[in-house]
Amino acid sequence: MGWLDQLAEHVEDLRRAGRLQQNGCSAQALPILDAVLATATDRMTLAYALVQRFGALINLGRVAELAAAMAAAAEAVREVPDPYLRGQMHAFAALGAHLQSHLDRGVTHLVQASRALAAVPDRDAETAWGWHDLAMAYSYLGFHGQALTAIEQAREVGASAGLAPEVFAAPGIRLRNAVSLDHWGDTDGCLRVLRDIDAELYRYLATDQLRPGSRAVYGYALARRAALGEPTEADATRWLTGGGDSVRTRDLRHLGAVCLTIAAGKPERALSMLEAVPVSAEVLGAPEPARLRSICHARAGDHAAAHTADRYAFRLAAQRIDQLRDGYLDGVAARLDAQETQRDPHRYGDETLTDPLTGLPNRRALEHYVDALLARGGRAAVGVCDIVGFTTVNMRHGRHCGDLVLQRIAGVLARVMRRGDFVARFAGDEFVLILPGAGPHHAAEVSRRISAAAAAENWQILVPGTPIGLACGWSEVGANGRGLSAALAAAAGSRKPT
To answer: Which residues are bridge partners to 384 per DSSP?
Structure first.
């Protein structure tokens, strides 16, 4: 029994929508999924349909709708803790992050998808397609080795479900690998991979196993070889027709026509075609149009312009490596901040009094601390800080990135506190600061330090396009008999951006 067979409703509708998506017909699958969502009541059915709808929107390039679709799918999957659904959702989320140029977020989803799919106990067709979609996500984000490993896993799981290995040919993975080699200057390596792709086309034609969605990929591999000056026996134009309604297919057709125009000895015309129709930077990578311009200039005899275009293509390829390095360093910094707060047992107590995400004292620890302070007759300034922009972070970037922001803010607050001060995570994105013996002047100084430290953080690397700030308000505890609840209410009411 396959995974879909366990659903209570609309199994055949969902199976039909899945076949349409596999054949590159997401526009036809979308109304079927919408009809299921309008009538289904079973939570598992709804979660599956929402995840597949998210995937259809990605295939169609409807970027403006992705944030809402992902939020709906993620919420539904959380209510149905199924590892296959979680893996499939994260694989699509990685592709969505790629379309939105959020490389660091995409990498996070890749890891989560791989772990979830590895935990699926059943080796059925749906799980095999989950590995296939993860392989696509790895490939689009530039992790070609991991993509090949994931597609082999798809073939292995698919074989257990009776699917032929040819179903998971995934020529797009090797095509992106080939053009990536060319972007880095290894044109010979690119041609070797393109030859392998073209040889595979004939093998699959002989067995009648060619998927419609792969037509444009094979066509582009043929056209790209021709643009590099290596003639092919097959007619690339034939394969660049049909193949579905995805953004990928549309762009491959256009760039394939550019390559064939170069091969026909019309480089000026090819340059005009490149300028006339913009293509997504996410299909074959941002460097591909620049590399094609270089080939055009070289064919036209303008070697200075060809060299300039090649350098630009190389620089675009290197930018992704820089983004990965920055994201890696930023994630490590957030984890170190959390670890530092967890290493101070005298300050933070045992686990029952500690917030597990940030390592800071929790609400219970805060209440114990203030009770002891008041019992000694002490008084303190009380600050309530919350994160400006945190809701947007969770909507645009996902809860994992939200967790990283919380850890980073916890590290910022812990670093700027005076010796003897107390900082706790109170709830959600709200933090409470206790400054024993401090008055308004000290509180204002702490606010200035918090503002400077938060502004110095590189939030664009962690959550691109989402500004992060802190809003703080201050009150006093112990003054005129004021207790913690009243102090917190007063501080929360006076919050303003630091």
So the answer is: 432, 473
pLDDT at position 323, please?
67
Of the candidates 160, 217, 212, the residue with the CA atom closest to the CA atom of residue 21: 212
Q: Is the pLDDT of residue 178 over 60?
A: yes
How far apart CA 53 and CA 32 sit, in angstroms, is 9
Residue 162 DSSP one-character state? T
d(CA 366, CA 383): 12
Query: What SS3 class is residue 145?
Result: helix
Closest CA to 456 of 498, 495, 494: 498
Terminal C-alpha separation, the chain: 58
Whether the CB-CB separation of 288 and 179 falls below 8 Å is answered with yes
pLDDT in tens, 211-229: 777 888 999 999 999 999 9
Q: In what order do the strands lie in the sheet with 430-436?
A: 422-427, 430-436, 380-388, 469-477, 496-497
Q: Return d(Cα 295, Cα 265) in angstroms, integer.
A: 11
Q: How far apart are CA 123 and CA 6, in angstroms?
A: 14
| Amino acid code (one letter) for 450 | I
Angle, vertex CA 119, rays to CA 114 and CA 120, nearest 5: 105
- Given the candidates 1.25.40.10, 1.10.287.130, 3.30.2130.30, 3.30.70.560, the CATH classification of the domain at 1-168 is 1.25.40.10
Residue 349 has what pLDDT?
A: 47
Domain 363-497, CATH:
3.30.70.270
Mean pLDDT to the nearest integer, 148-155: 91
Query: Reduced to 3 states, what is the DSSP secondary structure of residue 23?
Result: coil
Question: Residue 345: its pLDDT value, please?
Answer: 45
Domain boundaries, the chain: 1-168, 169-321, 363-497
Task: Quote the longest CA-to-CA distance of the chain.
Answer: 91
Give the pLDDT band (50/70/90) at residue 395: confident
Buried b (16+ CB within 10 A) or exposed e, 311-333: ebbbebbeebeebbebbeebbeb
pLDDT band at 333 (very low <50, low <70, confident <90, very high): low
Q: What's the pLDDT score for residue 152?
A: 92
69-111 residue pLDDT tens: 888 898 888 888 889 999 999 999 998 888 877 777 888 889 8
Backbone dihedral angles phi then psi of residue 226, each to the nearest 5 degrees? -65, -40
The secondary structure of residue 184, as a DSSP letter, is: T
